[in-house]
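Hi there,

I know you've been waiting on this one. I reran it after we fixed the sequence typo, so this is the corrected version. Both the input and the resulting structure follow.
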Amino acid sequence: MQRLGRWLWHDDGDRPRVAAWLALAAAIRGVLIWITFAQIRAASPGTIVPPLVEKRPDWGYFFTPVEHLIRDGMFWYREGIPFAGRMPGYPGPYYLLRQLLDPDAALNALIAAQMLLAVVATYALARAAQVALASRRAFVIAFALAACNLFGITADFRTEAESFTFSAFAIHLLFLARYLRGARRRDLVWSGLWLAWAIFLRPSTGLALAVEAPVVLVVAARRAGWRSALAAGLAFCAPFAAADAVWIVRNYAALGRFIPLQTGVTESYGVIYSPQWLAVRHWIVAWGGDRGYFREGSVSEWMRRADLADDAIELPREALGDAGYTAADVRALRRDYQRFRTENLDPAEREALGEAVLERAAALREAYVRAHPFRHYVVVPLQLARPMIVHSGSPYVHVAPGSWLRWPLRIAGGVWYYGLLLGFAVGSVRLWRRHGARPLVVVAWTYSVLLVPAVIVTAGTEQARYVQTAHALWIVIAPAALAAGRPDADAGQDGA
């Protein structure tokens, strides 16, 4: 054990050996990736781009505009229309790789970069916990939690922005924790840089900037007055402000109006998210249905797929209730929507049918809300939030049919998630008693509580992967449940 200790820690006992811990993180995460990737490859072989990539549906939204930019000189998704439906945080690295590699090789290089940065993020979260809690034990606990993160492990090999988002957010937390402990302004600049990239990857992460900037201002003002606080706030916010200014200028030049983040789904993707489909989806969400048309057996899938029969599914009881409409009314809406979406109509007929779909879907929604206001305004929002907060294991670890790993992975994922949640709750209470640690607790709870409704409202989804950044904050605070640290200790913050 002493030899292992010397391999992992410097002679002073408090500073971790960076290379050793990175190697350990790579080994642990490598094993988990090997296990989960093998399961997904067996379950869905058609989604694999060998040797490293699981190609997800979001690939087209992120990278098709990049291919058009390379081929045509314009960043577009819909023919001839400049695209601002996704911020360039994820397409940007892919574009750089495409200057050197073909599409498949560029995808594999991008995924390799995701995996490597996730290793760095594992160390960053452990170090952030050590800095915040002034405890070597906190480093070890946070490292174990981050390295064994079964919830997010599949993101590392998927063509989705979540892996980079989580990693960038984790690294920003390390620099933020260093600032809160040591008040070095350059740490704020680095924290702001990494957070800016996280926002460009997933705009809902911008909530962190809104939560953290006031905390930074208050902490800086208490230490050195408001003039210093303004300088600190500028240092923290300037990276995103500068990057977003460039994006705003590009969007104004391309589309002729002010777009600080991204355009709505109808403008961005056209018929895929037409006003008619959004109206149908609003009715489905009104009673608590799944808005994902890619979910097999859902009402959304039945509404979208023309190859399914009118009686292919039995409408759920909660979709009808006593709202004053019948299953026949719903099927009539589906027939109109399918005609609007799939048939070759003349422009006047298409416009009239589109208006009819909008009116019929709105009428169904209004009837349901009028008949069931409590369910719509209270029960349904809680149902939407539930999969983001309560889940046994990871909803993203898909196990091959008949695999013996189904229950071990589910149990391990559940133990990890609920253990982290419990540790975060207990650790927050213990840290609150330490005045110097309260800013971090305020950030963690405010961000975690507001993130779920922010994602549902801004992204129009209840997918749990959109709230993974909250887990990074939990990982930093959870070790306090077992390792509260020394309130006035310097956790070796002058090193990496």
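Quick highlight: The longest strand covers residues 48-49.

Best,
R. S.
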